[in-house]
Amino acid sequence: MAKRWVQNVKTVSTFPPKDTFNRPAKEVARIMADPKVSPKGLGSAIRMVQYFINRAGKGLSEKQRNELEKAKRLLQRQNAEAKDAQPQPRTRKSSTHRATSSRSRPQRNRIRKSWQ
C-alpha cells in the first residue's frame, strides 16, 4: 500500500497540548481557538483539526472522528461570526463613475483652448 501524503508532512507550527484531540468537541474547539495554540487565528485552528483527522486516517474511531468533525464545525461557525462582526472595508467608486466626473476630457480641452 502506498504512503499517504500526510505521512510525509514535517511541520514547525505550534502544537496543541497533549491529548487535546481525545476530548469532547466543545473542549477541542475552545483549546484550538486559543491564540497561544493558533496564533494565526481560527482558520489555522480549523486546518489543524482537519490535519489531525487526515493524519489519523482509518485508525480514528467513528466516535472520535464525529467529535472532531463537530469541533471543526464549531470553529467554522466561530470564524464566520467573527468575520460578520468585522466592519466591511469601504470600496472605491467604480471606474465608470470616474469617467463621468466633472473633469472629463472635453472640459480639459475647453480650458486649453481658452488659453490659446
Can you tell me about this structure?
The chain has helices spanning 25-33, 42-56, 62-85, 95-99, 105-115. The protein is mainly α and 116 residues long. It has one domain (5-86).
Overview in brief:
The chain has helices at residues 25-33, 42-56, 62-85, 95-99, 105-115.
What does the secondary structure layout of this molecule look like, with pairings?
Blueprint: H1 25-33, H2 42-56, H3 62-85, H4 95-99, H5 105-115
Helix pairs in contact: 1-3, 2-3
Determine Rg (CA atoms, Å): 26 Å
pLDDT averaged residue by residue: 80
Low-confidence stretches: none
Structural class estimated from helices and strands: mainly alpha
Q: State which percent range the strand residues make up.
A: under 5%
Counting DSSP H or I runs of 4 or more residues, the number of helices is 5
**Count of the domains:** 1
Order of helices and strands: HHHHH
Helicity level, as a percent range? 55-70%
How many E-type strands? Answer: 0
What descriptive keywords fit this protein?
116 residues, mainly alpha, globular
